[in-house]
Amino acid sequence: PAFRAARPTHVSFEAEMSQNVIAAQKAIQAAKGFVHFRGSSLDTVTSMVIPLGFAAAGITLLAKGIDNLSWGKNRKEGF
């Protein structure tokens, strides 16, 4: 063949990014403990504050419902 494609002398962007991703995955897998808490403060909000808020709201609503049931509040006539 008259035309021969030259091999690239540099590493492509995709190959370099995949190497970075693989290195980051290995570092995370080697870490001990709760890995999802080691990120930025936004990770903490996502993994801790939001679930705790949902739990607090649920417990509050449950306690209010039990209180209403035990004292007979909001009872409808005929039931």
Short description:
With 79 residues, the protein is mainly α. Helices cover 62% and strands 0% of the residues.
Structure description:
With 79 residues, the protein is mostly helical. Helices cover 62% and strands 0% of the residues. It contains 2 helices and no strands. It has helices at 13-30, 41-71. The longest helix is centred in the C-terminal third of the chain and has 31 residues, at 41-71.
Give a quick set of tags describing it.
79 residues, mainly alpha
**What low-confidence regions span 5 or more consecutive residues with pLDDT below 50?**
none
Q: How far apart lie the N and C ends? A: 92 Å
Number of helical segments?
A: 2
SS strand fraction: under 5%
What layout of secondary structure does this protein have?
Blueprint: H1 13-30, H2 41-71
